[in-house]
Please model this.
Amino acid sequence: MVISVIGVGYLGAVHAAAMAELGHEVIGLDIDADRIAALQAGRAPFHEPGFEEILRRGLRSGRLRFTTDYAELEPAEVHFLGLGTPQRKDGFGADLSHLESAIDSLREVLAARGGAPTLVVGKSTVPAGTARRLSDQVEQVEGVQLLWNPEFLREGFAVQDTLEPDRLVYGLREPEGPQAEAVIAMLDAVYAALLAAGVPRLVMGYETAELVKASANAFLATKISFINAIAEMCEAVGGDVADVARAIGMDDRIGAKFLRAGVGFGGGCLPKDIRAFIASAEEHGVGESLGFLREVDLINERRRARTVELAGEMLGGVEGRRITVLGAAFKPDSDDVRDSPALDVADRLMQAGARVTVTDPQALANAAQRVPGLTVEAELAAALRGAELTLLLTEWREYRDLDPVWAADLVAVPRMLDGRTVLEPRRWAEAGWEFRSLGRADSSALQQPAASIPAVPALL
Ligand code: UGA
Model:
């Protein structure tokens, strides 16, 4: 099939390359000419494992290309909308202006189809009611139907999540009837390989599909803030949140994933999506029902403040002190620093007068751009050298596997604050480190050697 993907940011670029991988002819469009030039040259504009490979394979096959010109989209039978919906500058709601202007630009392209069946498929995360409103606009053009097909991919696993999703959600104006069948069949043809591999496909109304996406992210954010609230409690009473998470996660009604306590969630999705959900609930007169999401947001915010406070406690004041921050990306295997807890904490420490050096395997260029004046160092050993306090804030594998004996020789003072509860306190204490972790009692008492060291399981 001939497909277009409008908006080739994170979601759209991966989707475009993945659809070419499935055998479709794909044209990716963006108004950002630099981004289009990079993609067309086979260069990924962001770090995402496996993406550059499928991008280059698509380009080489001749099935994938990129453009800034809407007129080139005319042959497409299916147009995917992958535009960003960031938080509005004046409040919590989602800014839909990119989506709206894409629909405006698409109108002529749709009209040029002369009534041939054409599907517009929304993938962006939008407040409930958006799809119905947009469908009123695009379905004025004869032959055009709009379907909402939310995306659930995670950064760092984007290619895998697109080609092997847990489920496909189809949101339709009317989920039943002959017209629905035609629309469903068209998108089924796009996803034929995934459906044949057994990926479940759920058909529902527009609003339900929009709410599936908002609820999924709200639930994930709530799970993280829940364990972070327990982390606060653990700090207060002298418990260990990693053990709490491990033990409650063994109940499969709760599940072990997304129970890793620490400096909290960030990125381009969870924080802005829960806020947009709150704003949308308020608009629909049910603000109280989702009021708890404000608390989810506040708990998340408090973790950052607490990390800065704890750094101050450990150093007896941060002003003028040499601090090394391990991690700038909002999560490992990504170079995305949007609303990154690690970068935010580094910035706050810097604002408080600390001499901060940040290191990260992938995100330093983005970090330096976002926080002017930040000292960045790509090499781990060089970054650690001379530190009076080291903070682990993004759990890249190289930081999780860091050897405390090796690191102790580099730093000025072996003092570690684990902001992701991924290091083994006893191991670090035994190597002579003053060790603190969010959500765990002060472990200075752990310096007594232990007979056996229990492994901390990965909770992601
Ligand atoms: C999130 C969702 O997981 C995806 O399903 C969704 O499609 C995507 O948003 C989106 O709406 O586009 P992503 O932003 O890539 O994906 O990142 P997550 O893996 O959800 O992590 C978000 C944040 O939570 C990170 O800062 C991470 O470090 C933090 N986190 C995650 C924790 O603090 N604890 C955990 O146990 C898990």
Remarks:
- The chain has 18 helices and 14 strands.
- The pocket of uridine-5'-diphosphate-glucuronic acid is lined by residues 125, 151-155, 217, 220, 224, 258-260, 262, 264-267, 269-270, 273, 330-331, 459-460 (CB under 6 Å).
- The longest helix spans residues 206-237.
- The chain has a mean pLDDT of 95.
